[in-house]
Amino acid sequence: MDRWADPPLLVLASLAGEPKHGYAIARDVAETMGVKLSAGTLYAVISRLEARGLIEPLEAADRRRPYRITSAGAAELDRQAARMSVVASLARSRLRGQPGWSGA
Amino acid sequence: MTRALARAALALYPPAWRARYGDEVLAFVDDSGGGLGAIASIALQAPPMWICPPVHLHDADARMRASISTVLAAWSFLTGLALSFVMFTQQQGFAPPDHPVVGWSYVVFDVTLAASVLVTLTGSLPLWLTMLRQAGRERRRRDLACLLLPAVVPAAYLGAGLATLSLVHHPEASGPWWFIGFTIAGFAAAAVSAGGPILAMIRMRPHGRAVRLAVRTSGAAAASITAAALASGIAATGLCLWSPGFPAYGDGPALGGYLLALIAAAAVASVSAARGRLYASRRRSSR
């Protein structure tokens, strides 16, 4: 897993689209965000997010239980996204001032 | 093979976590065709789930009662070990003069042990009185008897000890058996004293402020008894290293066993107290 990744945030971002079960979350995060979540990490995160009321389980289909983001989870995701956006803007503006910087 | 290994890795988790998420994790492993890396990741996440379990999987009051019971049992055992340490060291009036660390360890031990006893008594008294009143009101004779054990048994043990000492002159002449007998009886008395309230708590299922207060103070009691255990471990190791003139202190296996028992009991008390406090704080924030 990318050491800069924040797994709870990735899971919340994945569930912001639609409810998903564990493997669907991991596949979505890998395809759209380029981060591979292992089984242990993913379910540790799911259990913590559920305990904090940020996601909730839906009726299980077979052994695969989908989860959906709660309103508290959506608010938390929005807060974190705004914070990351500020950090990203600040980082880009400061990097542009660096001599020899030729990044994006 | 992978599935069997995944099941083995899941066996490392707390039962409540396994019952809630176990099937989903196995389905994930099946879907992803997970290899050894996936199994290792499952195993690696197990210890944090014991140390800091997700609170929604447990009944908070039951978890707090279990935490109080575990801390009480570990605390009683550590107090028994501490009193044995006192009999072996401080009561012999011995500290190597060239090594003040042993003397200082005695001081730290005395202060932290006294603090731990004080905190335990004040923290558990409201819960004990609440349960005592409830048992009396509801005529629960067995629970009443269990609750009175911590008051009756230590008094009976001390009384029996003093009576024996007054009847048997020069017990040291009959070898170490008196001492061993007193020590074993002391641990048995501590176990019964702790076991009585634990049994009553299992049956009566108290809840409310008294339980939360007992959980919060159990953290301080566990911390201070752990500090006392640490100080006694340092003193015992110092005596073992620096007292060649006293062969009794040079017993490596006995010291190893003592330190191992200290560490195990202190770890159980600290982890359980931390878990209990987690549930107490979660309960307060959710109200």
Overall description:
The complex is a heterodimer of chains A (104) and B (287). Chain A has 104 residues and is mostly helical. Chain A has a single domain, classed as Orthogonal Bundle (Arc Repressor Mutant, subunit A). In chain A, 60% of the residues lie in helices and 6% in strands. Chain A has helices at residues 7-17, 22-33, 39-51, 71-96; strands at 55-57, 67-69. In chain A, strands 1-2 form a two-stranded antiparallel ribbon. Chain B is an all-alpha fold and 287 residues long. Chain B has 2 domains: 2-51; 58-286, no CATH class. Chain B is 81% helix and 0% strand. In chain B, helix 1 packs parallel to helix 3 and helix 6 (100-137) crosses helix 7. The longest helix of chain B is centred in the middle third of the chain and has 38 residues, at 100-137.
Question: Which secondary structure elements does this structure contain, and how are they paired or packed?
Answer:
The complex is a heterodimer of chains A (104) and B (287).
Chain A: H1 7-17, H2 22-33, H3 39-51, E1 55-57, E2 67-69, H4 71-96
Antiparallel strand pairs in A: 1-2
Chain B: H1 2-10, H2 15-32, H3 36-44, H4 46-51, H5 60-88, H6 100-137, H7 141-167, H8 177-204, H9 209-242, H10 252-286
Helix pairs in contact in B: 1-2, 1-3, 5-8, 5-9, 5-10, 6-7, 6-9, 7-8, 9-10
